[in-house]
Amino acid sequence: MNQEKQIMGETTANVSELIRPENLVYKKPTLLNDNTMHYCPGCSHGVVHKLVAEVLEEMNMGEKAVGIAPVGCAVFAYNYIDIDWQEAAHGRAPALATAVKRLQPDKLVFTYQGDGDLAAIGTAETIHAANRGENITIIFINNGIYGMTGGQMAPTTLEGMKTATCPAGRNVELNGYPLNITNLLKELPGVAYVTRQSVNTAPAVRKTKKALMKAFENSMNKKGCSVVEVVSTCNSGWKMSPEKANEWMIDNMHPAYPLGDLKDI
């Protein structure tokens, strides 16, 4: 027993030696609080929330940031990132962000929206805010489905993709084509930066973080509207395990929504 205690003591001492500021390679951003997130295991929202908090902290913009929370799965974003928030009605986040930014131009203002919120009921607000060149960032989480309300077909649902309201798969003749709204937004003169990223791998996470940093900097430098689309999983809505959802996203979502910068001026 004494030998075990000695070994444990030596191990504790060794660990203490390793825990030094110069050896730290990762820590949770201080703007991300300790509240337990409500997202499903495997969901991409938590990763993107962490990146938003991390970027704001590195930019030292926590006190100046205003997030516009959406309707949908991310409706409780204000519970997790410790900045000022406004809650918008369904699809109205870009309109509310416009008001906040115009009234307080020194603030870093961004919306955080899913495909149902942004590309369905919020299509008009999104397009017109972008076309006006509002100095805001639009963060667009595209998982091709209405995740919160039962997995119904969204504007971005892929052709042939099964959902609660098209159980045989999206039929173009009946339901129309998937709406690639990010491609539309890049054509607008008020838009300075459009990029499409993902967070399914470590390199992808790093690229998304870099994209968020650029978009936020654009907003503060008054370059116009910036859009960061994150092609994401909804393993609950897709009725897959997190692992299978990642595989399905790579095989199906990424070809339909190719990753990379679409516009950067």
Protein architecture, described:
The protein is built from ten helices and nine strands. α4 (115-121) crosses α5 (123-131). It is α/β, with parallel strands linked by helices and 265 residues long. The chain is globular and about 75 Å long.
Layout of strands and helices, then pairs:
Blueprint: H1 2-18, H2 45-58, E1 65-69, E2 84-87, H3 93-103, E3 108-114, H4 115-121, H5 123-131, E4 137-142, E5 145-146, E6 152-153, H6 172-175, H7 181-185, E7 191-198, H8 202-220, E8 225-231, H9 235-238, H10 242-256, E9 260-264
Parallel strand pairs: 1-2, 1-3, 3-4, 4-8, 7-8
Antiparallel strand pairs: 5-6, 7-9
Keywords:
10 helices, globular, single chain, 9 strands, 7-stranded mixed β-sheet, 265 residues, two-stranded antiparallel ribbon, alpha/beta
Q: Between the first and last Cα atoms, what is the distance in angstroms?
A: 68 Å
Helices, by number, come to 10
| Whole-angstrom Rg | 20 Å
Write down the overall mean pLDDT: 93
Shape: globular
Percent of residues in beta strands? 15-25%
Task: Give the structural class.
Answer: alpha/beta
Roughly what percent helix?
Answer: 25-40%
- What is the number of beta strands? 9
- What is the makeup of the main sheet? 7 strands, mixed
Low-pLDDT runs of 5+ residues are none
Nutshell version of this structure?
By secondary structure, this protein is of the alpha/beta class. The protein has ten helices and nine strands.
